[in-house]
Amino acid sequence: MALLEVKNLDVRFAVRGGDLTALRGISFNLDKGERLGLVGESGAGKSVAAFSILNLVAQPGYIAGGQILFKGKDLAAMSERELRKIRGNQIAMIFQDPMMTLNPVLTIGTQMVEAILAHRKISKKEARDIALDRLQKVQIPSPEKRLDQYPHELSGGMRQRVIIAIALLLEPELIVADEPTTALDVTIQAEIMDLLLNLCEQENVALMLITHDLGVVSQVTRRMLVMYSGRIIEQGPTRDIINNAQHPYTRGLISALPQMGSPGARLFQIPGSMPSLKNVPAGCPFHPRCEFATEQCRGAMPEYVHSGNVDVACFEVAHRIEQETRMQEAES
Amino acid sequence: MTTSPLVSIRGLEKRFDLSGSLLEQITFSGGRFHRKQEAVHAINGVDLDVQKGEALCVVGESGCGKSTLARTVMGLISPSVGEIHYQDHRIDNLERKESLPYRRKMQMVFQNPYASLNPRMTIQQTLEEPIRFHHPDWPAIEVRNKIHEVMESVGIDRDWGSRFGHEFSGGQRQRIAIARALSVDPEFIVADEPISALDVSIQAQVLNLLMDAQESRGLTYLFITHDLAVVEHFGTRVAVMYLGRVCELADTKTLFSTPRHPYTQALLSAIPKLEDDRPNHIRLKGEVPTPVNLPSGCVFHGRCPHANDRCRRQIPELIVTDGGNQVACHAVEEGRL
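The joint structure predicted for all components is written out below.
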């Protein structure tokens, strides 16, 4: 059984003038100890996806349908009380901005001990020892001293290390990390990603990494999902997608990276921008920006087709696969 | 280099005072008064020449002084020590009126297009303002033609003129900000992280736009960024900054194929690449020190794997290596690296 199984998840936002659909039929699995990347640009719905896994979507957002099975139990149908036992305990979350996550008026030690005591019946002294152990694990210099410091006394990279230490406090089985290094400099980002990757491997923790950086995804994850306008448009092994993307959007996103172009030449560009939730185009949401768009794309939403190990939602890819199989049949 | 540079930065230093007024600086302890002065040393001796027609990229991590450099060049803040020259005229000490012709020739594009467009102005007004300011004698029709010309060249619709900034996405706003900079026909554009607030597919659009404008209008860029991947694509030359000093300066191709300074090497190795299966970066010790108390000698020595006694004592100057890079590093100079 997969550790996390998301089935046909729909998330909507109730606003004046009707509901806006933020996630449409999201389905994916995550095994124990697996590392999964979730990629997309702003507005694709990747943060909503991360929040809804913990059933944390705030008003006016709500889960309109589907299941989020964590070890077989549906988080979407659980009460707040039951959820509280899982959040921070079995599933931990790391957010983008470490300064917003830490309480500025409490010391690091107090915040860590508080989180442990919320879930475990142990003494404060024991909790403090656990906190110290985790700070050592994330390789913070002089961890003893840090316990009594306030967040503002630490640098950005150090704060994110503290956040990772807090995520590891209760030995979770899944860490959901939403753009954990976006606010950091490249050299610090590399160190934090390296640390997160090593810890997940050592402790056999599953990681769901939400990011817009395809480079980070290829370094850290083994499988990835690409989201566009609230839908997963491509999913499969990271290597397969990075080396040979199928969906025109994924292909465009990869070719638009400066490291893919030859220096000084014009970059490949996808025209237009991601549609807002208020006016998602009918049919395939990518069709107004897609060079292969046909009548069919404007009329209907494409279903997923298998192309090797990769699942893609695109009519163009479906036609190509159909043609290839027909050719093979004709040959034999 | 035979031709004189378009913009020349000479011996630039910029300090921001932290200690406040005289009364705040004075403390009484041990029976005596002490005066304590503290300052952020944002730029500590930078010499750079920007040649006509090139795109000089300045790269570095937060706190290295790259934005301060951009603002000082534009005259938004004045240097503590040093001079800025534009075509051999000193411009950092001019009176307001004298500086006007240079302000027309030098324009700036900022990082955050949500903050750099006035929310109460229509796009038409936003684009008109600099033209009316610098060419008060132009008739309305000429102003309008100019606006239409820049709108077309950055790929925005004429109908947008009557709309407000908040109606547009980040990429569209950055186009408007670029159109505003182009509207007075500048020669030199300082772009401070113009694409870092944008999505990947939009970044490509804006970069292409900047490159097209450079070609069709013969622009010169000073391009400030933290993203080395963009630099490789866009820059003619690259200056790498660390704690207010230039540690390496080279042609883009040379810098990316043979980086010499240990910091440049670490920075390049930290870019997450698509072909990587794991992070494989050069590990540096510790973190960037505070620019309030600068380290002695080479500012990078505390984190450098090759630092020796000399690095801790003596500040390295830029020297030209065989490969054509200019590197400020004792280890490179001594042939240890």
